[in-house]
């Protein structure tokens, strides 16, 4: 199936026109009057001169007429408005003239309403378990196209009416005031729906017939529009333009003929309005051109029709047909003047009504971002009350109705009161019969002959099994006398669907024949219209339905596949920016041609153009192409890790919110730009550009001059790759098993989980954002034996050595890995950093989320262990992480309960309690955790007693995130204690990632408090079995950490060590040989590194965790603790709301923050009878929880002072 939103890469070649992109919508080179005969005229006379018809055209007719005449110069009336439709085969009147068809045995065909109502009852018995991905936008677009081909009125009279009566107003009987212009439908007294309403009659008006040439032939219905796909229903026979050539638009941008047509829903009007707005959009731009050849309204009409035709044949039909049948249909024709452009009766009154079966009971309506579900028929009445963007947004997300016929369709169509309406399928069936269409099987054989299909004989109803399901066959056998009597309309129930499409085969075939004829007989079809200007052709390729939605609605994001529910979306601003870029580019060319470069407008535009040089344009197009490709892959299950795989959820992605994909696109643009420069420029020039040492230049794409041209000499290293990730990690784990020191620690796993909670608050846990959030992108096959065939830019699998000591035996050679999302939303020329998925402040952003959810009292809805919804939806996370952050969720609600009990409560309760909760959280970090990790010496040196500094940015460093910040991972143990109801169990670490609700929250916390960390080994639980389900196959956490380190471009360990030493004022040491590393590593570890690295300056920063130096009393390696000191000092000192200086905290809040700590939280919000006084130490002294609670109750009065 073709891509609904064209890749931007194909659009670069469209940038070659001469007079501003809209200014070159030229069709001619000389001015002329469209109604003036110029050149040789062509005169055509009808065969019966008594009728007196004649029509003339001039040979160089360059624009379409408004009634469709003169499209074919040899046959000027072909395709004209008001012509008769085409009978593909002779009609089946019973008397060959006008009497309705009868059954094979001469009996009447089944009564209309009775047949339809019974069929609806049969279909409603089906159990429908699927929802179509096709949306109602597709239905209304199809209806709009049909209206363009055949019109919406039933007949014409000297005096227009709102409809001729056939029934009494109450519907109880036929009206005494009935004319030949009406033919009411009978409703039986046993009708299940209408009988209780006493409705016995439904109005119907036959279609107007046409035989203007007085020929002796079967008289077909009249076409009330031109047959070509030319927006004739929008422009009408006499379009209303203003003096500038703009259409006079009404509701939703539609013209008066559309806005006043009945019956029409507001959605139909809004879709038509997109093309009305497109016309005027073109006029506004084309009229500013310095050279404007030809009438602007005609050039813009040609452009609008071209876009419309392109949407039909390149967006809509490929979706409806599916790729296989679309290719089989083969629209690659040329203009054929020997075939008449005409719509067939069979399509008009049978197969062209296929979309009516898709009408749902309700549709979505989304005004101002609010979603409502309203009855379908509401949208027919008082359309001005509806928001146009809201109606379009609603149908984009409303799936079509499938499997049966809705009551909105069968019983309540066009209802006002929601009860009494008409029957749309009955009207369709009446049209089919009034037009004398032959039976279904007759048309089936006719179409099969055209397509070369083998026909079937239908002697019995059982023979229909190739087309219909058993329930439909059984029903038809009770209603019709013979299978060859079945009405043509019921081809819409054909169960032979085209592969990959949404249409029954006979409907798809009929639609193919119709649209192929209309394309190939249209002299002005956009792909071969010789009068279209070069600019018009390029713009038609750029514009599609997605573009129209972006330009002419108020949607912030628009679907790339506008006919599918849940389509990935792209920012409207991005599309508008792209169109503006094209416009600016060609305006510049036009200015060069006319030498008119002194105007204020030209200067402004040229300055804008200077920002987009050759490399920028190339980068922009590549970036958008990748963004679209990524979203396409996010929708494809082949690219996503499956639910049955062990690492499902390990690389979770978050959804991109409205307008956020602009950030992603800008980042990708910068990334592509820098990669382009890396190839085009030397390393020296690129380094100076990134370091900001180049002078400002026109395109930002070169480095012609500089204040300081500097370039380091090439690194003396050989340039070979760094040690292979997994091989290095597995070797280090094996080394520590053999040579590592035997140590133990009094620190517990509770502290480790707490540190992970803090990191999640600082940087988040998801790896990136996509339009379609996933549980991980695939890089490897499900069995891990090789890379997957479905690897996208969103994944970068890790290779495993064949002789791997653990994975090698099981044949695993590939581990999934997803790079982090980058961030450079300002498109600055700099090294692009990874994106932070949470606010950098220590503010519990991972708990509260971007938009906190509070109840009417200000309390947070809490889930298992007290965690909020953003927490429970996060992966990967252990139940211990959830339980620890849940303590703060419970603290928030505890605070709310107490404030609500106060006699006076000023200000927002939820915000005051949020401030208190964050204050306690910050106090525990700086008052309990860091002193223990650092020891007195470093804690005092770190200088955390700072004041708020508004001049430093609050941000997390790449170094911390991908290096020292991952230090706690080496403390993970193979097993973690679980203490439930007095019983102690040691359970595998990785069990705690899944089935959180099966764990008792108090038991998990009690166990973590008594589980010592691992300090002398890298355990199997992280190195081989991380995130395992079965206890055998898992991932490698240190491998992921090392991949993060390298992907983020971190400099080597010794480089960062020198940077830290410069900051803290320590003397640096050179590392020319591996032996020089003796100040940091043991001799055995130095030997290990010498075996894997070429040079000591190559060692990855991640291995700062192996630093054997430490400050007195510290529980961390020196380089790691120094890095953490810098990080947490920055985050504290740049936080205006840090609890110790926040002036808006009440006195009660300040005091409560001082007395609330982890000991208090454990006493308040767990079922522990005793809680530790030192919660980060194993075997800490404990205090009775009830004593803690009793003390806290004694200071409850402070809650009223928060």
Automatic annotation (TrEMBL):
Heme b binds at residue 356. GO terms for molecular function: heme binding; metal ion binding; peroxidase activity. PROSITE patterns: PEROXIDASE_3. Keywords: Heme, Iron, Metal-binding, Oxidoreductase, Peroxidase, Signal. Residues 1-30 form the signal peptide. It comes from the Eukaryota. The keyword Signal applies. One of its GO terms (biological process) is response to oxidative stress. This is Uncharacterized protein. It comes from Anopheles funestus (African malaria mosquito).
């Amino acid at each position: 199936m073709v891509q609904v939103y064209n890749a931007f890469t194909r659009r670069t070649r469209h940038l070659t026109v001469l007079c501003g992109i809209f200014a070159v919508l030229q069709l001619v080179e000389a001015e002329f009057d469209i109604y003036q005969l110029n050149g040789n005229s062509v005169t055509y006379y009808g065969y019966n001169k008594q009728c007196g018809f004649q029509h003339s055209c001039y040979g160089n007719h360059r624009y379409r007429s408004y009634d469709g005449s003169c499209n074919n110069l040899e046959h000027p009336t072909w395709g004209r408005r008001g012509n008769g439709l085409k009978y593909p085969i002779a009609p089946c009147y019973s008397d060959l003239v006008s009497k309705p068809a009868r059954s094979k045995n001469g009996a009447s065909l089944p009564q209309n309403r009775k047949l339809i109502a019974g069929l609806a009852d049969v279909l409603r018995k089906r159990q429908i378990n699927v929802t179509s991905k096709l949306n109602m936008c597709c239905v209304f677009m199809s209806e709009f196209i049909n209206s363009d081909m055949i019109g919406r009125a039933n007949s014409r009279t000297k005096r227009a009416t709102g409809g001729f009566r056939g029934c009494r107003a109450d519907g109880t009987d036929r009206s005494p005031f009935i004319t030949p212009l009406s033919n009411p439908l009978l409703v039986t007294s046993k009708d299940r729906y209408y009988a209780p309403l006493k409705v016995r009659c439904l109005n119907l008006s036959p279609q107007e017939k046409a035989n203007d040439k007085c020929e002796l032939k079967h008289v077909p219905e009249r076409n009330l529009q031109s047959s070509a796909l030319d927006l004739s229903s929008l422009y009408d026979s006499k379009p209303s333009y203003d003096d500038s050539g703009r259409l006079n638009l009404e509701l939703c941008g539609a013209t008066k003929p559309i806005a006043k047509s009945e019956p029409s829903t507001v959605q139909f009007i809004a879709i038509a309005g997109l093309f009305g707005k497109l016309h005027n959009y073109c006029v506004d731009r084309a009229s500013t051109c310095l050279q404007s050849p030809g009438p602007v309204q005609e050039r813009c009409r040609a452009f609008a029709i071209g876009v419309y035709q392109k949407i039909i044949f390149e967006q809509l039909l490929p979706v409806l047909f599916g790729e296989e049948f679309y290719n089989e249909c083969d629209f690659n024709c040329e203009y054929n003047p020997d075939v008449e452009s005409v719509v067939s009766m069979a399509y008009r009154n049978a197969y062209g009504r296929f979309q009516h079966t898709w009408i749902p009971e309700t549709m979505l309506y989304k005004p101002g971002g609010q979603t409502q579900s309203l009855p379908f028929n509401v949208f027919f009445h008082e359309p001005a009350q509806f928001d146009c963007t809201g109606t379009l947004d609603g149908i984009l997300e409303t799936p079509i109705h499938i499997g049966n016929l809705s009551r909105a369709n069968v019983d309540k169509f066009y209802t006002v009161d929601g009860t009494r309406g008409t029957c749309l399928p009955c009207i369709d069936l009446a049209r089919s019969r009034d037009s004398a269409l032959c039976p279904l099987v007759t048309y089936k054989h006719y179409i099969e002959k055209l397509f070369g299909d083998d026909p079937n004989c239908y002697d019995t109803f059982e023979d229909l099994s190739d087309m219909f399901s058993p329930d439909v066959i059984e029903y038809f056998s009770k209603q019709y006398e013979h299978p060859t009597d079945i009405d043509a309309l019921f081809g819409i129930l054909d169960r032979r669907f085209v592969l990959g499409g949404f249409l029954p085969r006979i409907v798809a075939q009929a639609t193919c024949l119709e649209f192929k004829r209309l394309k190939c007989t249209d002299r002005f079809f956009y792909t071969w219209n010789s009068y279209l200007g070069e600019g018009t052709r390029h713009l038609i390729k750029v514009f599609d339905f997605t573009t129209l939605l972006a330009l002419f609605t108020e949607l912030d994001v628009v679907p790339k596949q506008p006919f599918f529910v849940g389509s990935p979306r792209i920012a409207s601003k991005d599309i508008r920016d792209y169109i503006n870029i094209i416009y600016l580019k060609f305006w510049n060319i036009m200015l060069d041609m006319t030498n008119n470069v002194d105007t204020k407008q030209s200067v402004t535009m040229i300055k804008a153009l200077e920002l987009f040089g050759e490399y920028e344009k190339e980068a922009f197009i590549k970036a958008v192409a990748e963004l679209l490709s990524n979203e396409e892959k996010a929708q494809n299950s082949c690219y996503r890790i499956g639910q049955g795989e062990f690492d499902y959820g390990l690389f979770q992605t978050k959804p991109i919110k409205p307008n956020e994909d602009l950030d992603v696109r800008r980042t990708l643009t910068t990334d592509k730009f820098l990669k382009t420069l890396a190839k085009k420029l030397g390393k020296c020039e690129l380094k100076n550009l990134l370091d900001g040492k180049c002078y400002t230049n026109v395109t930002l794409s070169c480095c012609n001059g500089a204040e300081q041209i500097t370039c380091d000499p090439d690194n003396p290293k050989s340039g070979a790759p760094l040690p292979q990730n997994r091989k290095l990690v597995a070797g280090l784990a094996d080394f520590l098993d053999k040579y590592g020191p035997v140590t133990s620690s009094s620190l517990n796993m509770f502290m480790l989980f707490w540190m992970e909670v803090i990191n999640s608050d600082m940087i988040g846990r998801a790896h990136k954002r996509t339009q379609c959030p996933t549980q991980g992108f695939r890089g490897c096959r499900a069995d891990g034996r090789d890379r997957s065939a479905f690897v996208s830019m969103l994944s970068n699998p890790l290779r495993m050595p064949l002789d791997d000591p653990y994975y090698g035996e099981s044949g695993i050679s590939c581990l999934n890995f997803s790079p982090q999302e980058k961030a450079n939303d300002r498109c600055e020329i700099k090294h692009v950093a990874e994106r932070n998925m949470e606010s950098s402040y220590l503010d519990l952003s991972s708990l509260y989320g971007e938009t906190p959810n509070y109840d009417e009292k200000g309390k947070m809805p809490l889930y298992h262990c007290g965690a909020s919804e953003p927490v429970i939806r996060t992966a990967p996370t252990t139940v211990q992480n959830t339980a620890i952050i849940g303590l703060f969720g419970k603290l928030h609600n505890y605070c709310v309960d107490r404030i609500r009990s106060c006699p006076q409560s000023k200000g927002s309760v939820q915000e005051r309690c949020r401030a208190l909760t964050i204050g306690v959280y910050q106090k525990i970090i700086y008052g309990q955790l860091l002193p223990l990790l650092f020891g007195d010496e470093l804690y005092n040196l770190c200088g955390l007693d700072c004041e708020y500094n508004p001049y430093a940015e609050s941000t997390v460093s790449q170094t911390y995130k991908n290096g020292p910040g991952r230090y706690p991972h080496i403390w993970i143990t193979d097993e973690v204690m679980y203490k439930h109801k007095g019983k102690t169990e040691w359970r595998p670490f990785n069990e705690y990632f899944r089935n959180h609700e099966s764990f008792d929250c108090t038991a998990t916390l009690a166990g973590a408090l008594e589980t010592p960390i691992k300090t002398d080994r890298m355990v199997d639980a992280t190195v081989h079995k991380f995130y395992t389900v079965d206890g055998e196959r898992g991932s490698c956490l240190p491998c992921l950490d090392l991949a993060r380190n390298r992907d983020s471009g971190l400099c080597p360990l010794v480089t960062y060590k020198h940077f830290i030493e410069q900051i803290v004022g320590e003397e640096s040491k050179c590392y020319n040989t591996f032996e020089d590393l003796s100040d940091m590593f043991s001799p055995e570890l130095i030997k290990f590194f010498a075996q894997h690295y070429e040079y000591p300056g190559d060692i990855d920063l991640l291995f700062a965790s192996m630093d054997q130096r430490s400050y007195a009393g510290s529980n961390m390696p020196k380089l790691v603790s120094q890095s953490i000191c810098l990080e947490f000092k920055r985050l504290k000192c740049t936080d205006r709301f840090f609890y110790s200086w926040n002036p808006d905290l009440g006195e009660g809040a300040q005091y409560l923050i001082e007395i609330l700590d982890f000991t208090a939280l454990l006493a308040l919000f767990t079922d522990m009878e005793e809680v530790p006084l030192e919660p980060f130490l194993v075997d800490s002294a404990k205090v009775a929880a009830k004593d803690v609670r009793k003390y806290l109750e004694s200071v409850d009065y402070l809650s009223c002072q928060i």
